Amino acid sequence: MTITHNIGFPRIGVERELKRAQESYWAGKITQDELEAVGRELRARHWRVQADAGLSLIPVGDFAWYDHILEWTTLLGAVPARFGQASGQPVALDTLFRMGRGRAPTGTPTAACEMTKWFDTNYHYIVPELVPQQDYRVARSHLFDQIREAQALGHRVKPVIPGPLTWLWLGKGDAFVQGAADVNKLALLERLLPVYVQVLQTIKALGVQWVQIDEPILGLDLPLAWQQAYAEVYRTLATADVSILLATYFADLQDNTAVLKGLPVQGVHIDLVRGPEQLERVAGALNDDQVLSLGLIDGRNIWRTDLDQARHTVSQPAARRGDKLWLAPSCSLLHVPVDLEAEQELDAELKAWLSFATQKLDELRLLAASLDTPDDQATQQALQAQRDALLARRNSTRIHRADVGARMAAAGALTRDRRPFAERIAHQQAQLSLPSYPTTTIGSFPQTDEIRVLRRDWKRGALGDAAYEKAMRQEIEHVIRFQEKVGLDVLVHGEPERNDMVEYFGELLAGFAFTQNGWVQSYGSRCVKPPIIYGDVARPAPMTVAWSAYAQSLTDKPVKGMLTGPVTILQWSFVRDDQARETTCRQLALALRDEVNDLEAAGIRVIQIDEPAFREGLPLRRADWQRYLDWAVDCFRLSTSGVADATQIHTHMCYSEFNDIIESIAAMDADVITIETSRSNMELLEAFESFHYPNDIGPGVYDIHSPNVPQREWMVDLMKKAGARLPRERLWVNPDCGLKTRGWPETEAALVAMVEAARALRYT
Predict the structure, then answer these.
(1) Which tens digits make up the pLDDT trace of 682-705?
(2) 668, 696 in Cβ contact below 8 A?
(3) Which residues participate in Zn(2+) binding (predicted)?
(4) Cα-flanking dihedrals φ and ψ of residue 499, to 5°?
């Protein structure tokens, strides 16, 4: 029988049970024992779902309290000194939380570790902090405890751990460079590998045969020294005498395929969704006695799988390799919602086209059955149902719109250019009269339970339109008056009407659909519910103009119109897979262009089009970058270039590395860009300094992903570091990101301190 397994399963629970338990624990509403009980229940439930799908091996170690890389970092004992970890003592769960978010119910609050995007996904991992003389040790037992949990429930387990080279590549420190060709990191292997061997030996002693070691950096452009390191690293790990499945995903291995030849591992997993051309090449690099695991079910999107095509792909390798060929999703199912059956209100036609994590395991089981028992009647009926659903989607009249097609055909004639920045900024300053170090926020203000209840009741029809609009206007006025009192220079309306920066716009655009429980984890307890782009995108009516115009009517200070950019809407949605992503992005850009022009016509003179996912969309291989960057920049400029010189265009990006794409960021030609820099201590400004970035920039001085309130002196020092790199007259003062997830007391204290910091800077 065909061996099936899973690379990883979502952690949060179908109703976000983990999120609620985490936040209750952080707020002191439940004990740590109660929190851990929720974790055990979720793990048991998810293992049962996977066992019921017939998986031969169940992943263990994919569960995480905050982030799987942070889990591994704490297991290795790699805790930065500022967290006060006692030598030789186990790393406590609260220490893990303080590393992730800056504070926990116990322990001294301190600066959280840096957070950045997990490859080209919208998941964020906590960056390991590397120290040259770090003493690694097994400092937590959670992995072994969870193996015992699963075994006690009768499951045959496959522990999942990050590979040593991937973990080092993702880490950074004062002596090292994150993700760069830094061979100095490789010197840490001497101290690191003995702990890996110890972990593998402990796993073997628990009666485990297979361990999945994730090395997704094999999808990147690796320097020769890193490629060569694999042989020695895995020769060392082989001494633990446990079967290793080396897992890669997100990309074709390309030249890194050569790393696999002679590598002492018992199996290799590859992603055939993202790298379909690599099958024969990778198969040729393996010995006949090595397992080849094929990822044929898309772990990053929610459309049903063409199982006939998948079966065709796998049929010849299956005939050649027999039981040495395994089947799996392409990557961890962390990136898709848990269960489609939780969607009770989703349109029936559309629902028939979809597959969430639980259903993807059913597809995997059906694919295996089509190989093992192809003549079975139930198998044939299930395969036919899959074909019918795919055919219905292809033939649906809901997907294509003639008016959108006509507008796309004419889009090439639309301008993407504005006058040079030096000319524009003079017009903008004459109109806005801003002081030096102007202050603003990124857009959203705290969303209280009361606001969420109002939105919920209105959507359910329990609150009328007039009452809802009155309540939202009251909240907008409260936010405006607060900002005036604090002394901010460019205000926002606070976005009380928005549930999410992407979902809100998708609800007002044609071609989108939405779920009730289609949640995926973004970071920590932060979950998002990506909309589904199933058809051509158009804007039936203005989306933000009325709210922004009302806010502007309340104050003489400029109020920013707030939009999410086309690339970010694309990246943070589940996107149709029947046309090129750039085509969908241009449809979004045209819709947003209309919104930008309408905001300007309504008297809004500052308009922010956020693109935090701009770098996230970058292909993993450098050779593919320019094509993406060309159309991504074009889409942004298509959105923004229809306005007058005096209208100031802002954009926002967060938790990204900018060095290698700074030319394209400059080519976007936003008048002001705001970025995250507080966790990275202004390090990200190096790219803007070296490039001599010509436009205005707001380096974030307030880490909104931590509940800690920054001190005025801390923010002054950060801005002085920024002023040493960039001209003072080009600098803005702002938080790292929106304030939606923060509470009002900490927000008020932080913004008061931020404005005081800006005023202090003006007189230094």
Answers:
(1) 666 777 777 788 899 988 888 877
(2) no
(3) 652, 654, 676, 737
(4) -80, -35
- Domains of the chain are 3-395 (3.20.20.210), 424-762 (3.20.20.210)
Give me the pLDDT at residue 499, please. Answer: 87
Q: Does residue 180 have a pLDDT over 60?
A: no
Half-sphere exposure of 519 (CA within 13 A, CB side): 18
Separation CA 71–CA 63 (nearest Å): 9
| Percentage, residues of the chain above pLDDT 90 | 85
Token couple for 289:
């006695």
Using 50, 70 and 90 to split pLDDT, how confident is the model at 741?
A: confident
Q: Which two tokens stand for residue 344?
A: 């009770």
Please answer whether residues 581 and 628 qualify as being in contact, where contact means their C-beta atoms are separated by less than 8 angstroms. Answer: no
Contact 328, 364 (CB under 8 A): yes
- pLDDT value at 330 more than 80: yes
Binding-site positions:
16-19, 117, 122, 442-444, 495, 526-527, 572, 610, 616, 652, 654, 676, 737
Q: Which two tokens stand for residue 166?
A: 């991937």
Measured CA to CA, the distance from residue 75 to residue 601 in angstroms comes to 56
pLDDT confidence bin for 71, thresholds 50/70/90: very high
Model confidence, pTM:
0.91
CA pair distance 126, 172, nearest whole angstrom: 11
710: nearest Cα among 724, 720, 700: 700
Place of tokens 């926020």: 441
For residues 265 and 290, the answer to whether their CB atoms sit within 8 Å is yes
Query: Which of the pair, 139 or 653, is modelled with greater confidence?
Result: 139
d(CA 181, CA 286): 27
Residue for token pair 């269960």: 339
- pLDDT, average across residues 270-292: 97
Task: Give the separation between CA 674 and CA 654, rounded to whole angstroms.
Answer: 8
Give the three-state DSSP class for 699.
Answer: strand
Which residues does the annotation mark as catalytic? 705
What phi and psi, each to the nearest 5 degrees, are found at residue 397?
-80, -5
Which residues in 26-53 are b (16+ Cβ under 10 Å) and which e? beeebeeeebbebbeebbeebbebbbeb
pLDDT at position 67 over 80: yes
The widest CA-to-CA distance across the chain, in whole angstroms, is 82
User: Which residues are annotated as part of the binding site for Zn(2+)?
Assistant: 652, 654, 676, 737
Q: Specify the range with the lowest mean pLDDT, choosing from 161-175, 191-205, 444-458, 654-668.
A: 654-668
Could you report the per-residue pLDDT of 183-230, keeping only the tens digit for each? 889 999 999 999 999 999 999 999 999 999 999 999 999 999 999 999
| Residues whose CB falls within 8 Å of the CB of residue 582, separated by 6 or more in sequence, listed in order | 631, 635
Return the amino acid letter for 417: D
Q: What residues are paired with 267 via a beta bridge? A: 245, 291
Centre a 10 Å sphere on the Cβ of residue 730 and count the other Cβ atoms it contains: 17
Helix (H) or strand (E) holding 160: strand 157-162
* Contact criterion met (CB below 8 Å) for 143 and 91: no
* 268, 290 Cβ separation under 8 angstroms: yes
